[in-house]
Amino acid sequence: PLQLLQHKTVPKRLRTSQRKPREPQIPRSLIKEIFRHFVKMPVTRDAFKIVEKCSERYFKQLSNDLEAYAHHAGRKTVEAADLEVLMRRQGLVTDKMPLNVLIENYLPLEYRKLLIPVAVSGNKLIPSK
């Protein structure tokens, strides 16, 4: 009769093995802030959800294309030239609108200083390559 009163031990499940690894995501607040900056009008929640899905798909495709360009060149690292080729294929970079002009038009000054080389006294380039 004592054996009937004792409870059976049930093995605990390992929760870590059941979780799927999550892909990194761009914060929703950042997407919302960028979108509102360019739209300059109120946006409904439904419209924002669609924008969020579109931006996620866009960045997935962008990263796949950059990976393919680097692989085609026989490299394991994506370089700035790959990004420029991709932007040229998308029509963002043209002969009349080079990459440096896009950077100057759309990025804040602190990012411009990091991306566009500038000659300073002593014949030095900042940022150095």
General description of the model:
The radius of gyration is 25 Å and the shape is extended. The protein has a domain at 28-115: Histone, subunit A (Orthogonal Bundle), CATH 1.10.20.10. The longest helix is centred in the middle third of the chain and has 28 residues, at 45-72. Strand 1 and strand 2 form a beta hairpin. The model has no long low-confidence stretch (mean pLDDT 81). It has helices spanning 2-5, 15-18, 28-39, 45-72, 80-90, 99-106, 109-115; strands at residues 118-120, 124-126. Strands 1-2 form a two-stranded antiparallel sheet. It is 57% helix and 5% strand. Helix 3 packs across helix 4 (45-72). The chain has seven helices and two strands, in the order αααααααββ. With 129 residues, the chain is mainly alpha-helical.
Characteristic key phrases:
mainly alpha; Histone, subunit A; two-stranded antiparallel ribbon
Task: Note the topology.
Blueprint: H1 2-5, H2 15-18, H3 28-39, H4 45-72, H5 80-90, H6 99-106, H7 109-115, E1 118-120, E2 124-126
Antiparallel strand pairs: 1-2
